[in-house]
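Q: What does the assembly look like in three dimensions?
Context provided by user:
Components: two
Sequences:
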Amino acid sequence: MARHVSSNILSSSEKWHEQLYDMLLESIPSSVLLVDRSLRVISANRNFLEKGRRSERSTTGALMNDVFPTPILESTKMEAKVRRVFEQGELLRGDQITYRAPGIPTRIYYYTVVPVKAEGRVECAMILMDDITEKVRLVEQAHLVQMRLANVVEYANDLLVSADAEGCIVTWNPAAERVTGFSSRDVQGRAMFDLCEHGDQEDMKSMIQQLARGKSVRPRELRLIASSGALIPVAWAFSYMRDESGKVSVLVAVGRDLTERHAFEAQLAQNVKLAALGVMAGGIAHELRNPLSVSYSAAQFLNEGAQDPEFHAECVQKILGGIERASGIIENLLRFSRPSEGGNTKIIDLVPVVRETTRLLSNQGALQKITVTENYPAVSAFINGNASQLQQVLMNLIFNAYAAMPDGGELKIAVFHEDGRAVIVVRDTGCGIAEANRAKIFDPFFTTKAAGSGTGLGLSICHTIISQHEGSIDVDSVIGKGCTFTIRLSTK
Amino acid sequence: MMSKDSASLRQASAQRDTILIIDDEPGVRWSLRHLLESNGFTVASASSGVEALKSLKASTFRIVLVDAKLPDIDGINLARRIRVETPCQSPLILVSGYFYDDDAVVSEVLSSGLFAAFATKPIVHDDLLLLIRNAISSAAPIVVEN
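A: Here is the predicted structure of the complete assembly.
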């Protein structure tokens, strides 16, 4: 315990004050050392003794230079500094001291030398040392975290944009610069919706308004207009931050450039189409060669000089009819093989899309002795979608159904309205999907078909396309009995 | 070589020259019927596998033209069933637009003897007639019993 050295007889009030100061000194979380003009320690508080691993006896009355380890004295030039405080009577703000006492981890202190004056003369100097080890560590850590975050923002492949509550851009990372061609300076302060493609501006505005009200919004795809004028499809995820008062002050948008992904998906879709074409080729060859054969035979009869005028006319009719039928089959084939119209959507009636696709594949079904029943609603089912992509989804489902029924069966295709949504059901009486596989069927490259027979991409693409249409696709199956795929899409 | 008296010879001759066309496509049946009839053959036809099996159990034909894709039974499977389920031993000719000449499936059914020949659609009349005549001349004669 530190004791104030005094020869005076103290009154009880003074004693009380002395005790109070002692208590204060003992309890403050700083190391306090009091030295007199001869640089001897008058008092050292408990904190100092503990941190320095010293006893009170070996400290009080000792020279300051014997109390501090030599390296600290040398690096801080503390003696000279304390002397200057005595001479000039001014407070000295020190610096950091890194000190490692034997047996304990390195600590970092910040020291201050306070002149303690009596009647204008500096009687003693108080050396105050704050242990700032934790603080320094936290600051360093915070700095590191900040650096890492800055790196993430700097080197992220995704667009990272922050905006104020009105949606005006505050920060715009290098990925955003790279993707759009607009520099951070170009877009600073501009409204985010301003950079969106015209058709997407209202959506962006309404999302920003929702965020500003503290509502979360679902991730969605909105297109940006690059400085080159090109449209960049970007999948955006939004979040917001509140200030101390709880008000939304910052909007954060993370965007992923989907250009490459869209190109890849289009390519994949085309590949899957080509694979499906292979399956169809056999059926189409058969379909096409029948009318060709009829026309060809009729032409051969005419060439040989058919005498009977009635037979002559019959031959001509067969030729015309056969060519017409063959041409119709080719037209269907063309419709099917045409590349997708990209990701563009418009308001379309689902019924003709489903009907045409089913009809297109009916040849194959007939060859496999599959009875196809179709059920359509009396009224149109308008949705916002991409006909070509939806056609592809149906084709995949129908082909899968055919593959599940090699020895024939029943395929039911239905479109109906339910709770404001358009529902497409494709139900087969095939082999069904094993319980263990049900969760995996939408995974890319998952297939139960023999190597070379299936890419394992069909259902995965179906899932992607339906998700892009903000719809759902579900499967229900009983092994050995068949399975039912249900697609639900919002009607417009 | 054939039957012993004139009555049975007449009957044999009639049946010998009857060709069964199995095809679900009416246009194809129309063209084949014209082609074969104008070349002196008698023609019967069936539009499905089941119908063909029924005919083949009831009558004998000189040649059977089988379409590869029928609505009920696949043409190749039908050929196997003809040999198992009916007394028919006449040459079978596969007529189809589904296969091409050097198709592995075609090579196999020809080398195994299941089919005597393969004609692709569109049908070249002279080619088909040649195939039919070759099949008739190389096939065992039909013995018709009284």
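Follow-up: Confidence is low (pLDDT under 50) at residues 1-14 of chain B.
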